[in-house]
Amino acid sequence: MSDEGYNGYTNYETWLVCLNIDNDEGLYHDVRRAAKESKELHDNYEVGQELKEYLEEWFYDDKNHIYKICDSWTERDWKEINWTEVAETRLEE
Question: Per-10-residue mean pLDDT for the chain, 93 residues long?
């Protein structure tokens, strides 16, 4: 991870999604397991894309067409997340 950006992450959006993963024990273990299983077949970029799809199920609000992570996020905010970095940090642990 870079020392630049937001709290050691690329940006605020990446930091916040990682914070939310880390603060929910069930989600944390599910995401780590999914990342490790995916890593057996894919590189970190592809693992990140799979985690993105998985987490969209957790955070996307179909009714309002937003992502609910602390505040309401638009699709633009969601696209700012560095999914490769999310995967790398989940695989490091």
Answer: 77 93 94 93 95 91 84 84 96 84
